[in-house]
Write a structure and sequence with these properties.
Order of helices and strands: HHEHHEHEHEEHEHEHEEHHHEEHEEEH
Number of helices: 14
Strand content: 5-15%
Helix content: 40-55%
Number of strands: 14
Structural class: alpha/beta
CATH architecture of the largest domain: 3-Layer(aba) Sandwich
Number of domains: 2
Strand order of the largest sheet: 2-9-8-7-6-3-4-5
Length: 403
């Protein structure tokens, strides 16, 4: 049976995760130091607390949570999330629980997009979003960034041009805090400027927020959703997805979305069709984790854990890299971004780096199709040891200097 003759057109054109393929290509290399993945440190997982809560939930509430649950999410969990975030005017109907943030991105895009519709993204941006949008037949356009986040002038000119060509620009996707892959955090003023622009131009924003609570230095900046909520009294222009993958552990596959009720209802309809319901046991466990007041102390511990890892990588880059290499200096998250001189190709450098037993993700993978930039790379500092960070950056710098 030749099933390829039966595949849908979307399936035929669908691409697998390039990052997973690149990481897999390094698995068999002994003594490799990898800055390629986006893995949180297992040392940050609250294993003991979760083990106790899971056991308690199954034992005392198993009759409920082992049954089919509500597609929109668990009531106890939603109550705790609303208390945790402190939005006075929001209700449980403004919120949807999803099986990870990628599901949330997919449901939102499914709700909004027809074939050929345009989505604007920061350039570079999260590869998982690009893959999901491409699979849905979207036309994706990148908007340049500077040290304060997305460039509003570029956004304005791109939106005007696309609309003048008759294109339907459905939404902007943004990761404003410790962005994946760049590590850039959008400034508070830029957030206000972006939301004012979005309201004036009726451009919905999808805010992907896996990292905002992983701040190690500097002052906290309100999310796009909170900025719209508090500064503009607007609860509809931004839809925010909050992932717990880097907080409690990616294996729990837990995230939640808040936004306009009409969007949440349609996203819930997609969840009914695809997942039926989120993981009811995990929902209740996270609800109790919040209810017992464990979240903030846990976040404090995570930030204290990661702080020296970020600083060690920044120090190693300063010490080892040649003067014509530049990089971002994030105050949190788990990634930073390197620019090499024009003419360098980090796709080719990735293959050479494997010979030096060090790995990264080439920056070209984070740009929309036909907009790729090749003289850049993403580095992760959350998974390696401090010694590996020092050794790995030294290996990478030695390779770059030799070229």
């Amino acid at each position: 049976m030749e099933y390829s003759n039966y595949f849908s057109e979307h399936t035929k054109s669908m691409k697998s995760s390039l990052i997973r393929e690149l990481v897999a290509s390094t698995k068999s290399i002994p003594d490799l130091i990898s800055f390629a993945g986006g893995f949180p440190s297992p040392k940050t997982f609250p294993k003991e607390a979760l083990a106790e809560i899971y056991a308690q939930v199954i034992r005392e509430e198993g009759h409920d949570v082992l049954q089919y649950g509500a597609s929109e999410g668990d009531n106890l969990l939603k109550e705790q999330l609303l208390l945790w975030e402190g939005y006075e005017r929001l209700t449980k109907d403004d919120m949807l629980i999803t099986v990870g943030a990628t599901n949330a991105i997919y449901y939102y895009a499914r709700t909004m997009l027809n074939e050929g519709d345009v989505v604007l993204v920061e350039a570079p941006t999260f590869l998982g979003s690009l893959v999901a949008l491409n699979a849905l037949g979207a036309e994706v356009h990148g908007i340049p960034m500077d040290e304060e986040g997305i460039d509003i002038d570029s956004l304005r000119s791109s939106l005007k041009k696309l609309r003048s060509e008759g294109k339907k620009v459905k939404f902007l996707l943004s990761i404003p805090d410790f962005q994946n892959p760049s590590g850039i955090t959008m400034s508070e003023q830029r957030r206000k400027d972006l939301i004012r622009f979005a309201i004036d131009n009726e451009l919905p924003i999808f805010e992907d927020n896996p990292y905002s609570r992983l701040r190690y230095t500097g002052e906290h900046i309100p999310t796009l959703y909170r900025t719209a909520y508090e500064y503009f009294r607007n609860t509809s222009i931004v839809t925010e997805a909050v992932s717990f993958s880097k907080i409690l552990g990616p294996g729990m596959r837990f995230a939640f979305v808040k936004g306009d009720k009409s969007i949440i209802e349609k996203m819930c309809s997609w969840q009914q069709k695809i997942n039926v319901t989120p993981d009811c046991v995990t929902e209740r466990v996270v609800g109790h984790f919040l209810k017992q007041g464990l979240m903030q102390p846990h976040l404090d511990r995570i930030c204290e854990h990661y702080k020296p890892y970020l600083q060690t990588m920044l120090d190693a880059l300063e010490r080892e890299m040649p003067s014509n290499v530049m990089w971002t200096r994030p105050e949190g998250g788990i990634f930073l971004w390197l620019w090499l001189p024009e003419g360098f190709n980090c796709d080719e450098l990735f293959e050479k780096a494997k010979e030096h037993k060090v790995a990264f993700i080439p920056g070209s993978k984070f740009f929309p199709i036909s907009e790729e930039q090749y003289n850049c790379m993403r580095l992760n500092y959350s998974f390696s040891s401090l010694e590996q960070i020092n050794d790995g950056i030294a290996r990478l710098a030695k390779l770059i200097k030799s070229l």
